[in-house]
């Protein structure tokens, strides 16, 4: 028998404050989504008629052979156009990818009480947070998503504070993904005719975090979103999605022949998705794209996705690379402190504003 929520506040308390999440809501046996989850028309995601971005994944192992230049060109082209691409032979073992997905399901299948041991204010570390939606206290329509965020500082803390169900695999994944990120950043910077010192590259990916996202099967996928439109505010993201699908990326409106069409990044078994973040778009003076993306919900299966986010530390100064500004004759973005950028992203996310607009230099 489905529990009824007398008003929107009691639903909010149940899902957000009491830590039941969307999973807890679905476990009540709802046959339709509550009002609070219904997205405005323009944010709903149409499955039918959406093209799949059927581009072969890039084989990273070939960077070490005679095809080096060809692989570099593929990476650069993808970063300059869609800002999303998939990679295989990336160094993260297949078994680890499988364990990650299993451990995400294990964590979200815990009771609300067990998951809420990681709720803000209760969690043993401010770097570890279980929650739902994005900024639920500010959002009119909630996202159909629960998540656990695990910020990295040192191995000992990860092994002490991250949830037992996933800490070991998540830590291995974070380390291997960081290597991929470093390698791709070096390629992208070199392609601009520059070389960054090792310490500078480390500085722009100093903050590292693994998230596990959980989108329960949803009775009304046509009305909801698993994740609303956004671009990743950090440097680069490595993403593992399961086989269910539903990740949509917006094509660059500047490319002629389309006006912001959304395409689906199809799941490829064993592949990882690479997503260029806002910081790389800013540093490259707009040459590489941080694309808007969002996630659809599904009616009959629960989806998991596991991103590793990398970003500068909050006090880091960011802006277009100086040599590039000289070459281009214009700075398309201003210099700013990353913390100010983060603050702006959180303040505007629920207004669906493009976070990158804040960094644009005045005309
Ligand atoms: O679930 C996905 O496929 C994408 C997740 C995502 O965009 C994010 O967590 O920033
Ligand atoms: Fe994202």
TrEMBL record:
Domain of life from the UniProt record: Eukaryota
Domain Fe2OG dioxygenase: 200-312
Stored InterPro entries: DIOX_N (IPR026992), IPNS-like_FE2OG_OXY (IPR044861), IPNS-like_sf (IPR027443), Oxoglu/Fe-dep_dioxygenase_dom (IPR005123)
Keyword Oxidoreductase (UniProt): yes
Keywords: Iron, Metal-binding, Oxidoreductase
Listed Pfam families: 2OG-FeII_Oxy (PF03171), DIOX_N (PF14226)
PANTHER family per record: OXIDOREDUCTASE, 2OG-FE II OXYGENASE FAMILY PROTEIN (PTHR10209), SCOPOLETIN 8-HYDROXYLASE (PTHR10209:SF230)
Family according to the record: Belongs to the iron/ascorbate-dependent oxidoreductase family.
Listed name of the protein: Scopoletin 8-hydroxylase
Record organism: Stylosanthes scabra
């Amino acid at each position: 028998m489905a529990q009824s929520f007398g008003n929107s506040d009691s639903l909010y308390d149940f899902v957000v404050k009491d830590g039941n999440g969307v999973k807890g809501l679905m476990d009540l046996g709802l046959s339709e989504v509550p009002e609070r989850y219904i997205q405005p028309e323009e944010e709903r995601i149409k499955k039918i008629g959406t093209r799949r971005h059927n581009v072969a994944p890039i084989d990273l192992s070939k960077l070490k052979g005679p095809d080096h230049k060809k692989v570099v060109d593929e990476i650069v082209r993808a970063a300059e156009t869609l800002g999303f691409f998939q990679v295989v032979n990336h160094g993260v073992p297949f078994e680890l990818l499988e364990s990650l997905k299993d451990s995400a399901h294990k964590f979200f299948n815990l009771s609300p009480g067990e998951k809420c041991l990681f709720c803000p204010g209760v969690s043993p570390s401010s770097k570890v947070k279980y929650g739902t939606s994005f900024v639920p206290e500010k959002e009119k329509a909630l996202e159909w998503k629960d998540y656990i965020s695990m910020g990295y500082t040192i191995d000992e803390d990860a092994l002490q504070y991250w949830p037992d169900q996933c800490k070991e695999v998540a830590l291995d994944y974070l380390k291997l993904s960081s290597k991929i990120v470093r390698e791709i950043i070096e390629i992208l910077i070199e392609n601009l005719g520059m070389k960054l010192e090792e310490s500078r590259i480390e500085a722009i990916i100093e903050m590292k975090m693994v998230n596990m996202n959980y989108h329960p099967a949803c009775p009304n996928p046509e009305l909801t979103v698993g994740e609303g439109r956004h671009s990743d505010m950090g440097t680069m993201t490595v993403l593992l999605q399961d086989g269910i699908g539903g990740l949509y990326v917006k094509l660059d409106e500047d490319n002629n022949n389309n006006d912001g069409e959304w395409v689906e990044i199809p799941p490829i078994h064993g592949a990882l998705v690479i997503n260029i973040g806002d910081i790389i778009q800013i540093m490259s003076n707009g040459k590489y794209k941080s694309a808007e993306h969002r996630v659809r919900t599904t009616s009959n299966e629960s989806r998991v996705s596991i991103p590793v986010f990398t970003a500068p530390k909050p006090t880091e100064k960011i802006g277009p690379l100086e040599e590039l500004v000289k070459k281009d004759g214009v700075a398309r973005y201003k210099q700013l402190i990353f913390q100010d950028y983060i603050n702006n992203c959180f303040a505007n996310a629920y207004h669906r504003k493009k976070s990158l607009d804040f960094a644009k230099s005045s005309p």
